[in-house]
Amino acid sequence: MKLELITLVVIMAFIAAFAYVSSTGNHDWSGSDDQAGMVIDRLTGGTYHPWFHSIWEPPSPEIESLLFSLQAAIGSLIIGYFLGYYRAMARIKQPQLNWSEKEN
Fold first, then answer.
1. H helices within the chain, ranges in order?
2. First-to-last CA distance in the chain?
3. What span, in angstroms and rounded, lies between the C-alpha atoms of 8 and 16?
4. Which residues, including other chains, have CB under 8 Å from residue 64's CB and lie 6 or more apart?
5. Range of the domain at 65
6. Does residue 89 lie within any of the structural domains?
7. Cβ(64)–Cβ(56) under 8 Å?
8. Total number of domains constituting the chain
């Protein structure tokens, strides 16, 4: 019961924070790649040149978002698999009680 309450409080805090930030102005929900480049240009006076460039650029921002989402989903599946695996192994290692022992 305690874990469910903590989870509910954390979810409600995220919802409240998202609602507050969303309602307090016009926001650009883009990534930070362009922002970092602008800060580097401002700090170096525009003299910085990247060491390398991307091998392949996605044809549209939608494809880029799709690939990022796919990468996140695959990573979540892998993490979820291993968390489930280790939880199942921990349950297997616990001693099993007989029905007669549970009644006492």
1. 2-23, 33-44, 61-93, 99-103
2. 24
3. 12
4. 58
5. 60-95
6. yes
7. no
8. 1
Q: Mention every residue, 6+ apart, whose C-beta is less than 8 A from residue 8.
A: none
* Prediction pTM value: 0.48
Distance, in Å, from the CA atom of 14 to the CA atom of 20, rounded to the nearest integer, reads: 10
* Cβ neighbour number for residue 58 with a 10 Å cutoff: 13
87 within domain boundaries: yes
3-state secondary structure (DSSP) of residue 27: coil
What is the per-residue pLDDT across 28-82, written as a single tens digit (0 to 9) for each? 666 676 788 888 889 998 888 888 888 888 898 889 889 999 999 999 999 999 9
- Examine residue 74 and state whether it is found in any structural domain, yes or no: yes
CA-to-CA separations, 29 to 22, 61, 70, 95, in angstroms, rounded: 10, 13, 19, 50
Q: What is the C-alpha separation between 7 and 87, in angstroms, rounded?
A: 19
Residues 48 and 40 sit within 8 Å (Cβ to Cβ): yes
88 inside domain: yes
Q: Which amino acid does the sequence have at 103?
A: E
